[in-house]
Design goal:
Blueprint (H helix, E strand, L loop, with lengths): L1 H19 L9 E8 L6 H20 L7 E8 L7 H11 L3 E5 L2 H14 L3 E3 L13 E3 L4 H13 L5 E7 L3 H13 L5 E7 L8 H7 L4 E4 L3 H10 L8 E4 L18 E6 L7 H14 L6 H22 L10 H12 L5 E2 L9 E4 L5 E2 L3 E6 L4
Parallel strand pairs: 1-2, 1-3, 4-5, 6-7, 6-8, 8-9, 9-10
Antiparallel strand pairs: 10-14, 11-12, 12-13
Length: about 375
């Protein structure tokens, strides 16, 4: 009887330790990576692309033996691109044992996730939430260009086109569009006249006035998301004065909601992912298409794929330098290890979003530093 009682007491003590220390949650042999993103509703093409590509990267790493035999595991929660869903998702992921995170897919949820994860010291690298404020906590990183970087890069590109007047169509009540446009204007040549047209979430169902305002602008910069871009382009397709549309990463997915052949104008975008930019990108596209088809193939997913491999590479470097990383490493310890790598000059080679050379670095302030490219979604009709 005493022996049985001793066994019961020992079991209770072990259970108590696991309640007291969250690292026990991760002790099932895998390193756990969490993600919150839109798997349903209008932004689902982004979330599904990210979830698919991240899982594909993890599968590839695990098939090659993981991190010195330790496998990785991904858990994805649906936030429907709604920041009010993030707190519950985050709590569920922490309870699951999340040690590292890909944060959120879109900006507003990511800003909520940033605050929560900073309190718990959980490292995250978002593939696609581009607001500069996402990086305002020491535990947060981006694989995508921050909005400021996109605005600067877009302005530099437009400055080199020799234009005297352009149109701008943006959404005035979201940080993504406002942030990019502000930096674009700050860096645009003063010799270029800008015709502005804007909209809000309440007025995004009819762009008649905006089309009328911009119809004589040959070149229109559109730092907006693809759903609204689709409506504007459809309403303006008979305006012969408009020759070219130019957007940022929000235009990715446009071809999923719009038959681009019906739009006579050229459509281009600033991007960090081109399917033929390098051999890594070509291989990623071939493998992703074979596994998931083309409906959710986009730069958000390509960026998530790079996130996983960049994190894996940084952990591998840390282990080579003598750090201990395994399934029982706490989230806070993981965070310190990864910050030391990404703030210490770590370079990820093999990036599908790394331009022609396939290389990604991070600046001293934690922002991503890589080649910006112009992607032609379609040429103008002849």
């Amino acid at each position: 009887m005493k022996k049985i009682l001793a066994i019961v007491l020992a079991a209770l003590m072990i259970a108590g330790c696991c309640v007291a220390f969250s690292s026990c949650k991760g002790n099932d042999g895998t390193i756990k990576i969490g993600l919150s993103g839109p798997l349903t509703d209008s932004a689902a093409v982004y979330g599904k692309g990210v979830a698919n590509a991240a899982q594909m990267a993890i599968d590839e790493i695990n098939e090659k033996g993981g991190l010195n035999g330790i496998k990785f595991e991904l858990k994805v929660m649906d936030d429907v691109n709604d920041k009010t869903k993030v707190q519950n998702n985050y709590a569920a992921l922490v309870d699951w044992g999340m040690q590292i995170s890909l944060g959120c897919v879109t900006t507003q949820p990511a800003l909520e996730f940033k605050t929560l994860s900073a309190t718990d010291d959980i490292f995250f690298m978002t593939p696609s939430a581009s607001a500069d404020a996402v990086r305002s906590e020491a535990n947060g990183y981006q694989m995508c260009f921050a909005d400021k970087k996109q605005g600067v890069a877009a302005a530099n590109y437009v400055n080199g086109l020799g234009l005297s007047k352009i149109g701008v169509f943006y959404q005035s009540d979201i940080d993504y569009s406002k942030g990019i446009y502000q930096e674009f204007r700050n860096n645009l040549s003063g010799s270029i006249t800008v015709v502005e047209a804007s909209f809000t979430n309440q007025t995004k169902t009819d762009f008649t006035q905006q089309v009328s305002l911009l119809k004589d602008c040959e070149f229109i910069f559109m730092p907006i998301y693809y759903q609204e871009a689709s409506l504007f382009m459809t309403m303006a397709k008979d305006e012969a004065g408009i020759k070219t549309y130019y957007g940022c990463d929000g235009l990715d997915g446009l071809d999923t909601v719009l038959d681009l052949s019906t739009i006579p104008q050229a459509i281009t975008m600033l991007t960090h992912f081109k399917a033929d930019a390098n051999d890594y990108a070509k291989t990623f596209v071939a493998n992703y298409t074979a596994k998931y088809g083309t409906d959710t193939l986009n730069q958000f997913g390509a960026s998530a794929y790079d996130c996983v491999y960049a994190i894996f590479g940084a952990l591998k470097k840390a282990v080579e330098a003598g750090k201990t990383v395994d399934a029982s490493t706490s989230a806070s310890e993981m965070c310190d290890i990864l910050k030391n790598q990404f703030n210490g000059g770590y370079e990820y080679t093999g990036a599908v979003t790394g331009g022609t050379e396939g290389k990604v670095k991070w600046t001293a302030d934690g922002f991503v530093n890589k080649e910006a490219q112009v992607h032609v979604l379609k040429e103008a009709n002849s």
